[in-house]
Amino acid sequence: MPAPSPTKAYTPHGAAEALMYCRDREVMIDGPAGTGKTLGVLHKALLAAVTWPGSRIAMIRKTRKSLTDSVLVSWEEKVVPDGWSLVEEGPHRAYRRSYVHANKSELVLAGIDMADAGARAARAALMSTEFDLICCFEATELLLSDWEALTTRLRHYVMPYQQIVADCNPQGPSHWLKARADLGRMTRLPSRHTENPLLFDQRTGKPTREGEEYLDTLDALSGHRRARLRDGKWVQAEGVVYPTYDAAVHLVDPFEPPSDWDRYRVIDFGFNNPFVCQWYAENPDGDLYRYREIYMTGRTVASHSKTILECETEAERRRIRATIADHDAEDCETLRQNGIRNVVRARKDVRRGIEAVEERLVGSVRRDRPGIYFMRDVLVERDSTLADRFLPSSSDGEWEAYVYPEVVVGKPDKEEPVKQFDHGMDATRYMVAHLDFVGSGGSAVPTVVRRGVAADARARYTEPQPSGEEPTGTGQAASMPRVVKRGGRSRR
Fold it and tell me: How many C-beta atoms lie closer than 10 Å to residue 185's C-beta?
């Protein structure tokens, strides 16, 4: 459930109070979910605008859409007093460029991605503007280069100090934000649940009824997610299946794939667990880009089928080469009956599929770049029930949660991951296996496509093998998977 929200009469406590008085140039307020970090930053932004006429303040998230859907909702509903012209006058928040106060202070709204021509123009405008205060929400989404570029915009000098603020939950211990704070280049203000008056009575120090319910939700989390969102620790996820996944590399700004790129749908069925449908585009070099996603619980396959078709244009649908689906026969038939064509069975060898995805994440030896990318913020609709329970609400949230079981002394290691937070990961694996495995159906020995491997190795291992047999050969190459060249698009 979301953290309870205070009334617009606001008294900061703890880290939020310290933030109000802090004038250091770079500041990070971090801590568990629900400590009031974002409200503290928003109230500081409002206070600065009211206090210093003509000041310029930026409110930033990685993408403008995520800023609109989260931060600006809290800003308008929980921070700005009712009836203020700051909100009452002007367009809806989704279409605003800024909020202008009566004293000529301006709060500028922006994403910092390069998703399309509009986003690039907005970023260029942002980077040509001077500010007194820059507030970065969910700052762990930003790259270090984003942050450093923003610091160069602190030169408006209407306020008596210039400041950039990062608001975030903890991530891994090597994240650049924590490293920057550890080096003393940024003031760190750790926040705690006890500082939120909606969760804890500030006189007695005891949790309120809302606080007990909210903390129970956080206590139900496990592993690194509990450590970060309940305890506020910058910890690494243990036993992650894909340690080479790097959001800074593989998570890219959205763009419209060229119309001549092949398209694929890939589906992992679910009802109580998320139903996942991912759309991929494949460029001429064989690189995959996930450009749209459904990640939703509590809806039928028939309902999802309707959503899938509504999302697509006719031209896009003509480029879809296959709908790769889990093996539930009834659900597959429901897709077909509701207009989803070319449904094929996914290749589900988990171990080899993981190896194939890892190959794509690591990238080509020859070209030194990954073979798969994931566009950020491409959900068709966010499942609020998952978000309220702090569960992954998109495939992007599964990468660190998808782990191998802990090793128990005296028991054999399990080769397959824990069957939890794997719905988007399964879909991703199905997509890669569909293109990078060789063989009929799921019976033949899978082959991982390895772009950039020597031509003699490719030639040796492109011959089809009888079902159940391993590739044959001599010397070092005999231990390699059979390889086919992607450039010739010779698969199936």
Answer: 10
> Given this model, what pLDDT does residue 127 score?
86
What percent of the chain is helix, strand and coil (3-state, nearest 5)? 35, 15, 50
- How far CA 490 is from CA of 12, 286, 380, in Å, comes to 63, 12, 33
- 10-residue averages of pLDDT along the chain (492 residues): 55 95 97 95 96 96 91 94 81 90 94 72 84 97 92 96 97 89 93 94 93 94 88 87 89 92 97 97 95 97 97 95 94 96 93 93 75 94 87 91 73 73 96 80 38 30 33 31 34 34
Give the integer Cα–Cα distance in Å for 268 and 332.
Answer: 10
> 155 and 272 share a domain?
no
Closest CA to 190 of 32, 379, 422: 32
DSSP string, 358-408: HHHHH--TTT-S-SEEEESS-BSS--HHHHHTT---SGGGGTTT-BPPPP-
DSSP 24: -
Can you tell me the distance from the alpha carbon of 286 to that of 58, in angstroms, rounded to the nearest whole number? Answer: 40
Q: How far apart are CA 438 and CA 309, in angstroms?
A: 30
Q: Determine which helix (DSSP H) or strand (DSSP E) holds 37, and give its type and residue range.
A: helix 37-51
Is 287:363 a contact under the CB 8 Å cutoff?
A: no
Give the amino acid at 49: A
Residue 309 sits in the same domain as residue 417: yes
Quote the tokens at residue 282.
């494949």
Helix axes 14-21, 37-51, angle to 10 degrees: 30
Instruction: Say yes or no: 412 and 369 in one domain.
Output: yes
Q: How far apart are CA 229 and CA 232, in angstroms?
A: 6
Taken as a whole, the chain contains a residue count of 492
Tokens of 177: 């934000």
Q: How far apart are CA 410 and CA 465, in angstroms?
A: 38
Q: Tokens for 429?
A: 């694996």
Strands 98-100 and 106-111: antiparallel
The C-alpha atoms of residue 5 and residue 143 are separated, in whole angstroms, by: 30
Cα(426)–Cα(94) distance, rounded to whole angstroms? Answer: 34
Q: What is the CATH number of the domain that holds 27?
A: 3.40.50.300
Q: What is the pLDDT of residue 217?
A: 93
CA angle 317, 322, 327 (to 5 degrees): 130
- Residue 95: other Cβ atoms inside 10 A: 8
Sequence-distant (6+) residues with CB within 8 A of 409 are none
Task: Enter the pTM of the model.
Answer: 0.66
Q: Give the chain's count of helices (H) and strands (E).
A: 18, 14
User: Containing domain of residue 35, as a range?
Assistant: 14-229
What gap in Å lies between CA 23 and CA 187, rounded to an integer? 10
If one counts the domains in the chain, the total is: 2
Same domain? For 176 and 225 the reply is yes
Could you give the 3-state DSSP secondary structure of residue 214?
A: helix
DSSP letter string, 150-162: HHTTB---SSSS-
**Which CATH number do you get for residue 270?**
3.30.420.280
